Each structure stands twice: as structure tokens, then as C-alpha cells.
Amino acid sequence: MFQISHIHHVAIICSNYMVSKHFYNQILGFPIIKETYRAERQSYKLDLKISEHEQIELFSFPYPPRRPSQPEAQGLRHLAFTVTDLEQCITHLQAHNIPVENIRIDELTGKRFTFFADPDNLPLELYEQ
Hints:
With 129 residues, the protein is α/β, with parallel strands linked by helices. It is built from 2 helices and 8 strands; from the N terminus they run E-H-E-E-E-E-H-E-E-E. It has helices spanning 17-27, 86-95; strands spanning 9-14, 32-38, 43-49, 55-60, 79-83, 104-105, 112-117, 123-128. The strands form 2 sheets. A 4-stranded mixed beta sheet has the order 1-4-3-2, covered by helices on one side. The chain is globular, with a radius of gyration of 16 Å. It starts with 8 loop residues before the first strand and ends with a strand. The model has no long low-confidence stretch (mean pLDDT 90).
């Protein structure tokens, strides 16, 4: 039987590798697993640890196409991270001059959440448990 146990990784293509590397590693705090420069592609691949089983693969390419649509378009909408203290995370992001939306309440679960964006305007969500 076909059975999926968990998400292995989320792949993100960035427009400025150093800016996005700093954002995901230094600001969001994801530890670096491995950084690889691929000369034949003139690009970097950075593996960042989310949890024991999940990671972000951050890619850079010389001329990536821009994101063609807004978060409400068909396709992947956003990436959400579970947090235990939403206010603490918001304060941390704002201390790094990262705009954060107002806290909302999930009408189905009663849980609090908010959105912010990465350096390429990829929508990211913090969902409080």
C-alpha cells in the first residue's frame, strides 16, 4: 500500500542567495545541514534542518523566473511553521524589521496564527500550538 510518513523537504528558489541564507539561518534559526556550490549550474543548494525528518532546500540560480502569482492563486499557497509562543516569534521578526500581519484566530481550530514573508515575498505562516 502507498503510505507517506512525513514531508522530507520543501524546496525554495531564491533571488539573492546570501540574503535568503541569512534570513532562514540567522533570523528564523534553521541550522545548516550542508551547503553545496554547483559550478556547472552556477548555483548554491543549502539544506536547512526544520526537524529530525524535515528540511528546507534553498536553491539559487543565475536567472530564476519571478513568482508568477499571488498566494491566493491555484497551487502551493504558503509554508506554515508550528511555534509555541507566537508573540515571542513576532517580536523577534519585528526586531529584524520584518513586517508581520496581525494575529488571527483559525475559526476551525481556535488556534492563533499570523503571516510574514521571506526576502522573495514567499508567504510564511506561524501557527501556534
